[in-house]
Specification:
The protein has about 550 residues and is mainly beta. The chain is built from six helices and 37 strands. The strands form nine sheets. Strands 9, 10, 11, 14, 15 and 16 form a six-stranded antiparallel sheet that branches. The chain has a five-stranded mixed sheet with strand order 33-34-36-35-37. A four-stranded antiparallel sheet has the order 1-2-3-4, with no helix packed on it. The longest helix has 16 residues. It is globular. The protein starts with a helix and ends with a strand.
Length: about 550
């Protein structure tokens, strides 16, 4: 029987993401860099209390009782995007873009109309309902300033031929009658999709240059906000990624910021989806490095980095190799020609745990920076000289430090205190490994047990699934992640909760990722896993007792 204490524990666990410091103290360090990145401060939430700490990595010091107020800028207009030098801000008015410098305002565009306007992505992912709840007309404009603050990269969104659908707001905030909201929303198989026409504005001159190429397909997000379009370091050009509807070809393009001329830099075609990252919403693992390009590819069966010539498009070398996956590019040291990155697949016990590594751009000198069995979540300093490292596993609370690229701990920051979490009756989830439905492939998951777990008792089992190919359901770190926050509250209510990543999900080899959407993220693997876990369970339970199964989405 579920008790009041069970419900109270579930409520506490459910609000854990929104109430930092209530159950865990010191588990998340979010550095706020100051003094051109030489130092940073962070806050630690302890219940309702906050304490602030300042860190100097070069000096190796951590000083508590810091006052961050002199470094906290006054909040600006949330609907404006300011230039790097802070002199000009750009905002959206209706379907056009405007610039402001002090009291002076001027239009960058005047031809924006419904379904064909500037500075926003597709309606489908513009969060109109959420913006209305916030009391805002729309999201900040989708644009990117050039490093020298002279130009703005944006795009004109063309949704004129995209299917129109309606949302019904049954209870408007003003208490009036239900209201319908029009949105453009393409269905699978529709002929027309949202398009992005790249443009560059010279803000002071008030001129606009259009990219001399076909518009980019934009099914979900603005290419600028997704990191698929960015400025060169010298502000002379824009680089952007493009892909046809079948997603079998990925191309890196260069747009001249003055003329709009576009040329192909690198292009790769495969038999399946070709992307700049295994995680569909992950930042592209593509970098322009002087006269060369770092390029992510799964052509050898694993996701690795390759080096191309920026001017000729010639493949120069494969930078990383092995039966593991490059997850994130952390820093490129152009002087020493080194790339630092995280990789998964280097820890034998758990192929999802992320390890910090470094290698020369010529592919030599590979080494592991964080040489342990933990998962590492990393934030790099602005100058790339060091990184803040949170090391944990699903059952090991995080320890946060500042490290150099040799792996040396420069400053110890926090060791998470989970005593309040444990006081709710919570116990750490158990990482497990079973075989997929093919009987050969190893798949991994976590198992959450109820409060006051009795191995001889009978419990309903919830398979907590997220059947999409774009994300992982289970995180390899202590933080269960956005997809896993419901598992702990369910376990508190008396369920055994199982979560796993079947075939067709990212984080492993290219073959593991391959799959059909109809497979629902390896649903057959979930069934196989539950059957194996049930047999494993029965070997140490009382006869006549067992699991029941409850599906959950």
């Amino acid at each position: 029987m579920i008790t009041d204490a069970d419900y109270q524990a579930a409520e506490q666990l459910l609000r854990r993401p929104a109430a930092p410091g209530e159950l865990i103290v010191g588990d998340k360090v979010r550095p706020q860099w100051i003094e051109d990145g030489r130092r940073f401060w962070y806050q630690v939430r302890d219940g309702a209390d906050r304490r602030f700490v300042v860190v100097d990595p070069a000096a190796g010091t951590r000083t508590p009782d810091f006052d961050p107020m002199p470094f906290i800028a006054a909040p600006g207009n949330p609907l404006e995007v300011s230039s790097p030098d802070g002199k000009v801000a750009v905002s959206r008015r209706g379907h056009d873009l405007w610039a402001r410098s002090g009291d002076r305002e001027w239009a960058l565009t005047t031809d924006g109309v419904e379904g064909h306007g500037y500075g926003y992505g597709p309606d489908a992912m513009s969060y109109g309902t959420l913006m209305r709840k916030f009391g805002l007309p729309h999201m900040p404009p989708a644009l990117a300033w050039s490093p020298d603050s002279s130009k703005v990269l944006a795009h004109r969104t063309d949704q004129r031929n995209v299917r129109k659908t309606y949302l019904l707001e049954s209870r408007p905030a003003d208490g009036g009658a239900p209201v319908t909201h029009l949105q453009h929303y393409a269905y699978p198989g529709d002929e027309h999709m949202p398009l992005a026409e790249l443009v560059v504005f010279d803000v002071e001159a008030g001129t606009m240059v259009r990219a001399d190429c076909d518009p980019l397909l934009m099914p979900e997000f603005s290419p600028i906000m997704a990191g698929w379009a960015w400025w060169s370091d010298d502000s002379s050009a824009v680089y952007f990624l493009s892909r046809p509807r079948d997603q079998h070809t990925l191309t890196l393009n260069r747009m001249d910021a003055l003329t709009g001329e576009v040329r192909v830099v690198v292009s790769e075609t495969g038999t399946g989806r070709v992307g700049p990252n295994q995680l569909i919403y992950g930042a592209p693992l593509v970098r322009v490095v002087a006269d060369q390009v770092l390029w992510f590819s799964q052509r050898d069966g694993w996701g690795h980095l390759y080096l191309y010539d920026l001017h000729t498009g010639e493949l120069l070398s494969q930078v990383t190799t092995g039966q593991w996956l490059v997850r994130e590019i952390l820093h490129v040291n152009e002087t020493d020609r080194l790339v630092s990155f995280t990789a998964s697949g280097l820890v034998a016990d758990d192929p999802y745990r992320r390890t910090v590594c470094q290698v020369g751009l010529d592919g030599t000198g590979f080494r592991i920076v964080t040489d342990d069995e933990l998962d590492h979540v990393v934030t790099v300093s602005p100058d790339g000289s060091c990184f803040v490292d949170s090391a944990s596993t699903v059952d090991t609370p995080p320890v946060t430090t500042v490290r150099s690229w040799t792996g040396e701990v420069l400053v110890s920051l926090e060791q998470a205190d989970i005593s309040r979490l444990q006081a709710t009756g919570w116990t750490a989830p158990e990482r497990f490994r079973v075989k997929a439905a093919d009987g050969e492939t190893d798949i991994y998951g976590v198992l959450y047990k109820p409060r006051g777990f009795d191995p001889a008792a009978r419990y309903p089992v919830v398979d907590s699934v997220y059947p999409g190919p774009q994300v992982n359901r289970v995180e390899p770190c202590f933080d269960p992640g956005g997809m896993g926050m419901d598992a702990e509250p369910l376990a508190a209510l008396g369920f055994v909760v199982v979560a796993l990543d079947g075939r067709g999900t990212p984080g492993r080899s290219a073959a593991f990722l391959d799959g059909e959407l109809a497979d629902a993220g390896g649903l057959a693997d979930h069934v196989a896993a539950l059957e194996q876990l049930s047999r494993r369970w029965s070997s140490w339970r009382r006869p006549g007792r067992g699991w029941t199964w409850v599906a959950s989405a």
